[in-house]
Structure formats: C-alpha cells, structure tokens
C-alpha cells in the first residue's frame, strides 16, 4: 500500500456521500424522478451490452466494495483510543520495529470490526455471476484486507494487500496457526505472540508502505487480467500502485473494462463504460438482468 491510499480513500468516500445525498433528496420533482429512472435504465443497458457475452471475467475491487458493509478502510478504527492515531503510522515496518504493541492491538481491532460487518448485495451478486450459464471463469482480485468477498460466496479471492485474518512471523515469514485473542473493545496495546521457529514477533499479514506485494497473488492477478475477456472494476480510486496498473494489461489487449463507481477514478479513462453507481445497487441489478436473459425471463 502506498501513502496515497489513505487520502485517496478519504476523498473518494466524501464524493460518494455527496452524490448519494443529491440522488435521494426528498425535494425532487416527478419529472426529475422519471429522468433519473430512465438514466438508470440506460446505464444498466450499456452495462448489459458489455457483459452478456463474457466468458472469463476478472473483477478488480477496492475500498468502495466494502463501503456499503460499513467498513470505511483505515478510518474504521478511528474511535475511542484510536481517535488521535494517524493510520499511516500504523502501516510501516519501521513503526512495527519501534513499538509493535499498539499496531498489533489496532489490527486485531480492525479484524474484529471486519468480522462483525456483513457482505453486501454487491458481494452476493458476484457469487451469483459465477453461476451464470456461459461463464467459464470468474476471479476476484481485491485490494481490500477484509474477508467480505469470501463470506459473500467467493472463497477463492486473491488479496493483493494481505488479509486481516492471517498472521506470520516478522522475520522468517512462517504463517502463524496459533490462537489470536481478538479484543472485544479497542485497547491501546496488546502483545503479539512469538514465532515457534525463530522466536521473533508474529505480525499481521498485511502489505505495509514500501513492502512488495505477495508474488503468488500478484501473478494470479496478472494472469486473470491476461486471460479475461471482460474486466469489472469496482470502487477503487486507482491511485494505489502497483495494483492500479493491473487493468492496463487487459486494456492493452483491447478487452472491455466496465467500471462501477459513484465517482470518477484514475482508471476511468481505460474503461469502455463507467457506471456511476455503488456496488450494492449496480451489481444486483446487472446480475439479475443477466440471469433473466439466460432464462429468457
Ligand atoms: Zn519466525
């Protein structure tokens, strides 16, 4: 993750809140409501034209995918004891080396919040898309560190930036399979366990600033982009490198890219069509339409 992740996610969410207010205000006239309805239908039809014949679909998701589940990226944990904490200070190996206990407590608390959140209608819709007739392969690559795709039905999700529910040794990288005591309320400090192999501290298996992305996951994501005949980008600002460069692999081959995002992103220029909607509204509508085309309903 780069430092831009935090600021980008912040501004993205701000725009989302503004557009949501504009669209749902009670003061809209009947004409405005009808115009908006017809606009929504037009957008759905454009998305359908792009997606109905796709056989190998690569999903690329970011913070906007989890927003409607109530997870607000780094800012989730900014309550109580964490109010004054700079999230960026919680994502570097130098901070870990200096004082690991606040970071261990902070990540376990974030994991607790993620575990309490539920997958939204967008997550469930992707799992329905896999089962559509004619779809040979559907893969999800996410920059999110929660497990909402998995719990929404996509058990085999690729995590480019790590996973809140996995832990490993800081030095020898051995995965930690022992118990982890997730706090039931935010606490300022917790002691991480130590590695049974080398005695060093167990850390969250999250990609911190300046660290490289996990190789196997990166290769899998690249392959997905190289093999796909449709890419669907959801809720990502497209500023976090190197992840944001992945859709270029598909774009260079002339593969259509559909973006679902309430706001324009850095990836919008690569996209055949950008549907200005949230994941939990657009995806269920699109998948239902694809399903009814298959069944002729
Ligand atoms: Zn170790």
UniProtKB/TrEMBL annotation:
Name the enzyme group at the top EC level: transferase
Q: Which InterPro entries match?
A: DHS-like_NAD/FAD-binding_dom (IPR029035), NAD-dep_sirtuin_deacylases (IPR050134), Sirtuin (IPR003000), Sirtuin_cat_small_dom_sf (IPR026591), Sirtuin_class_III (IPR027546), Ssirtuin_cat_dom (IPR026590)
Does this UniProt record's set of keywords contain Transferase?
A: yes
Domains as described in the record: 2 residues (Tyr-107 and Arg-110) present in a large hydrophobic pocket are probably involved in substrate specificity. They are important for desuccinylation activity, but dispensable for deacetylation activity.
What gene is it encoded by? cobB2
GO MF terms listed in the record are: histone deacetylase activity, NAD-dependent; NAD+ binding; protein-malonyllysine demalonylase activity; protein-succinyllysine desuccinylase activity; zinc ion binding
State the NCBIfam families in the record: PRK00481.1-3
Please state what the protein is called.
Answer: NAD-dependent protein deacylase
Q: Does the keyword Metal-binding apply?
A: yes
Q: What is its main location?
A: cytoplasm
Q: Write out the annotated subcellular location.
A: Cytoplasm
**Which EC number(s) does the record attach to this protein?**
2.3.1.286
- Which cofactor(s) does the record list? Zn(2+)
Which keywords does this chain's UniProt record carry? Cytoplasm, Hydrolase, Metal-binding, NAD, Transferase, Zinc
Organism this protein belongs to: Corynebacterium occultum
As to how many cofactors bind and how, the note says: Binds 1 zinc ion per subunit.
- According to the entry, every stretch annotated as the Deacetylase sirtuin-type domain falls at 37-293
Q: Summarize where NAD(+) binds, as residue positions.
A: 143-146, 235-237, 279
